[in-house]
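Archive maintenance. Older records in this collection stored only the sequence; we are now back-filling the structure field for every entry so that each record is complete. The fields below show one back-filled record exactly as it appears after the update. Entries are processed alphabetically, and F-box domain-containing protein is next in the queue.

ARCHIVE ENTRY
Title: F-box domain-containing protein
Organism field: Brassica oleracea var. oleracea
Length field: 381
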Amino acid sequence: MIPKEAKPNQQETMTKPQPLSLSSLPDEILENILARLSKWNYPNLSLVSKRFLFLLSSPELYTTRSHIGTTEPCLYFCLDDLPIIPHPKWFTLWMRPADETLEDDDEILEDYSLVSVPSCRHHLKHVPYSSTVAVGSDIYVIGGPYKGPPSSLVCIFDCRSHTWREGPNMLVAREEAYAFHIDGKIYVMEEDRKDDNWMEVLDIKTQTWSCLLGHGATEFRDDWFLVNVFRGQIYVIAATENFAYEPKEGTWEVVETHECYGHIDSWCEIEDVMFCFTNSGHCMWYDTESGEWREVKGSDMEVLRDTSEHSLAWGCVVEIVNHGGKLLVIWVSRYKTKQTRRIWCGKKRHEGEIWGKMEWVNEVLTVTNSFNFLSCVLIMI
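Back-filled structure field:
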């Protein structure tokens, strides 16, 4: 008798479970994973699938990055270049992830560039240089430009979704004002205005403007001065004195006297230390004890002062910013080539000196002679 063929075990015929993949994870878990990666990997990851593109474009992803502490500094530029770029256009500085920046102690990387930022809004006709200010992941564009029509308009650019929205109008139409974000408020002052409407402040939470008193400002605003935020205060470097603004009292107070600082074009703060660059290519830091500007030391700092046509010594400093605790310098070369250089400063001190390490230098954009550099804003995103 021929035995009947045994039926295969039903369990053995079941398909073996496939190993888990990223695409099989719920959106919440996948979003949390993506939030832990460097933002500079997102352009490539967005090409994986439509689902990845959707998650990487979601504002919730950036909220998660903020909650888990994985935000990164991101620099936004705005410029026009007639007739090639007839309207103000925004760019972001594309950079390699922070843990890949330095591979060798003596290496200076050259693989950074400006990438155009898409926007769903009609073109802004004017972008004021000094009154664009970062608030979280937003850029506030406030008032009118230099030698342009005064304006009270406020436009807000969301750097997560690259969309625009209207903000609350200022109480006074202004031209090329200064704007600074401190403790949940935006302080705005207009250099050439001499009346009592010189300053006003926006409460970001309530989105309401209020007038501010500026007693003591007449001592410096009729002459040369530079203004920025230093140690949580609006701080002015004037011809022979430094001033700090006290918002509770509505007064400007002299905090220091010094010799003339005519060689300074712009400055910023890193770890409670002022840094500046001169057009001769020297990186300087301010010694508050002696009241003097001192040079940042470093064997490779000569890159800033070499004789090539693209060196800082041949150009003009446009802006310097605190880029995640490192000094980022943007300048225009003699031949109108946009450049950026970043220097690691303030991390090492020796006998009252500050040492710096050149991290990278690169040409990031070529423009024509007619270009206008309109804004430079650092966002944590």
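Update note: The chain is about 10% helix and 40% strand. The two ends are 78 Å apart (CA to CA).
Entry marked complete.
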